[in-house]
Structure formats: structure tokens, C-alpha cells
Amino acid sequence: MKLFDLSLSTPYLSLDPIFYHEVSTTPLRNPRLVSVNAEAAKMLGLDPEKLSARELEELLNGTRLLPGSRPYAMCYAGHQFGYYVPRLGDGRAINLGVVGGWNLQLKGSGQTLYSRQGDGRAVLRSSIREYLMSEAMHGLGIPTSRALALIGSDEKVAREKWEKGAIVLRMAPSWIRFGSFEYFFHTNRHRELESLADFLIAESFPHLIGAEDAYIKMYAEIVKRTAEMIAHWQSVGFNHGVMNTDNMSAIGITIDYGPFAFMDTFESGYICNHTDTQGRYSYDNQPRIGYWNLERFAHALSPLIPHEKLQRELERYGTYFTTKLMELLRAKLGLDTPHDNDGDLLRTLFTVMENGRIDMTPFFRTLSRYDGKREPLLALSLAPNQLNEWLDRYDERLVTNTSSIDERHERMLRTNPKYVLKNYMLQEAIDQAENDNFSLVNDLLMLAQSPYDEHMLFERYSLPTPLNLKNLKLSCSS
Length: 478
Known about the structure:
Layout: E1 20-22, E2 32-36, H1 38-43, H2 53-61, E3 72-74, E4 78-80, E5 83-85, E6 93-99, E7 102-107, E8 122-123, H3 124-139, E9 146-152, E10 156-158, E11 162-172, H4 178-186, H5 190-204, H6 214-236, E12 238-239, E13 261-262, H7 286-301, H8 307-314, H9 317-333, H10 342-355, H11 360-367, H12 375-378, H13 384-398, H14 405-415, H15 423-433, H16 439-449
Antiparallel strand pairs: 1-3, 2-9, 4-5, 6-7, 7-11, 8-11, 9-11, 10-11, 12-13
Helix pairs in contact: 3-15, 3-16, 4-5, 4-7, 6-7, 6-8, 6-9, 7-8, 10-13, 15-16
């Protein structure tokens, strides 16, 4: 199928107009295609071989609409850094419609009713980051929004400096957020709150349509999905950076990639967002913030669901999170059966990694080939004696495995990625793209989509981050 053979629907516009504002896009000057994601194209039923750069530029730049499209921005509120903001909304994102279960959205396509003092734009820097990271998270098996394509331009956009404007076409099964419900709760619009819950069930939880206690069952699933999503984040050293309730998906997927980071060396209190001066959204706080955000969500649902039922489901969050995290971490260590002392073994390992300033990704990848020879692992640590002691315990634990060494290695190599997109890698791609060289963007897209494979031409990206490139801090504008 060709691009403009797609036909969109806009079911969200069946809701009361208070939910959205229909808006026109504002095209960029001299747009040019930076990258197209063939995998995402196939998910929409498109033939990647029939996608023309000109048509993609027209679609992303908003100068040509797909059949059935009625562009609109969504209204929502949210708690930002712990403080409630009564109205936010899509300030620089415009929804095009739905096809094949995917809600298409342009980010950076101009001002909307909810832009407040913003320009409605995105810059090439932040757009490359979101485009690549959404695909990298999918490659790691983490629930996430996706991205179809990215354009740059000659449009000048003011941030900390003048930058080039860009637009990314991102996709999600739903763009409804915790903050969407908060808006209608805090404005005492309980009829609209119920309409939104019904819409979300129809869109993303169709098995609950007509079910008894459908609303509490929906909330229960969101609690579980959110807990397990954050467990995935923790297992790979991912720091989201800005877990405001308006950035939390109501279907438990990772959205709104801003000042994120994969840690260069393991640091439990790592903060990737330099705007976050109190460390509210640090790596080790993410599980707690997930619970806090779900509390806010429960409060917003309270006109529809008795408090005690909401609280009962919320209290399962910790069990869901811990169970999933232990499952993921046992897999990373190649442990094929659970043991009571695994929690202590893992806690000790993370302490050893932090004390030794160990880069998490190459460590677990090297461990995936561990056969008793310790030198490759010890070389990754600044505290090798502590690591050596932990390996003694690990060797003892491996004796209880039922699988062979080769089977363990094979499983671990499918579990521990060789490549994650660290910020220094993304910055290299951004620097080149600023000069209209988009080759590294596409190379990193390939690594993002096959992070467990061997890519000999990019071996350097599998090594610990060079010292002078570690811990690049970012702001919310990123």
C-alpha cells in the first residue's frame, strides 16, 4: 500500500469538544526527510519500497492530509514535579487520526490552543532523540510509543540557542494520559470523566466492554502494566527524566522522550535531567514515582470507583514491580530457577557495580559469555576485589542451574543487549544531522532495532562510554 492510500478515522472527536481542539498544522520552511522507519511503515500496512521522500515530507509537514484526517490537539492536565497544573494539553503535538489501531501524531507541527507561551515547535536535536529512542525501547522489548518518520528543515527555532525545526511522526495505540483524567476530575466534570473512561476501555481494553466493574478492572490492568514497564526501565538502566502525570500513559507504555538517558556507569541516584534539582525523577526514585502517579490517577477516578477498591488494586503495585524486576534480573544473570537468596545476590551486585563505576550494559553482555574466566569482567571495574568476591557467590549460585553453560550463554545473549543508545551516541548523530548528514541517524536506528546482534562496524558503541563523554545532562527542552 502507498502512503496516501491510508485512510484515517478520528474516534476521539466523537467526544465532547472540551476534550480537544481542532487545529491546522503550521508547515516548516524547506522540509527534508531525515529518516523513515521501515518497520513502523509495515505495521501500518505500507510498503517501505513505495514510500517517497516527497510524500513523507508533505505528510509530516502538514501540507497534505491523509484521507479522513481531522487534525486536533488533546486537552489534559497533570502534576509536574509534584505540583498540579490545571491545564496543559498538546502544546506542540497534533493528532491526525487512527489507522490499524495506531494513533498518528505530529510532534513539532505548530501552535495549538494548549501551547500557552510556547511556539509549538520541536527542534532537530530533540526529534532525533525521540525518534531513535522509541525504536530502541521497542527493540529491548519495553512497551513504548513508536515513530514512523522524521523531517528536518531550515526553520529557525529559539531554545537555548537558535536551532533547526523538525517534526517527528510518532504512533501509539493511545495518547490518553493520567493527566487526561485529572483534568476532568479537578474541574468537577464527572460526566466527561466517565466518557473518557468508556472511550479508553473501547480503545485499549475492549475485553472489558460490558464487563461488571469494568472501571476498576481497567485501573487494575493499568497498575500492573505501569509497574512492569518501570521494572523494565530499571533492568536496563534507563532513566526517563520527567515522570510528570501528563507524561504517564494510561495504557502503560513509555511516552514523551525528553531528558532521558541510559546510564553510562551504574549510579543508583542518577539524575539525567538538570532541571530536576531535587532528584525527584532520579533512577532509583522511578518505582516510587510510578506508585505516586498511580495514586493521583486513582484520585481522579474516585467519582467512578469506590476508594477502597482503588486502594486495593494500587497496593498490588509493589508486588507486580518486584516480581517482574526479579524475573528480568534473574534472566540477565542466566538463573533458570528462583532461589530465596537471589534478592540479596542482586542487591550486592548493584552495590558492587556502583562502587566499581561499572558500565551496566557491557558488564551484563560480558557476563553473558562467562565461563569461569574473570579477567574480562574484572577489567570493567574500578573495584575488582569486590567484584571478585561477588563472582565467588555467583559461581556457587550457578551450580544450582539445571541448564548447561552453552544454554545459559545462549539465553543471556538474547537477554542482555550489546547496544543501548547512550546520550553520547545520540549527540554524535545530532551533530552530523545539523550539517545535513543523516547517515548516523539511520545507523543508530538499525542498532536500536537489533540491539542483541553483533554489528562489527559499530563495535565501539558496545564498549564502556569514554570518560570525557559520560553523564551528559539534558533539560526538558531536549
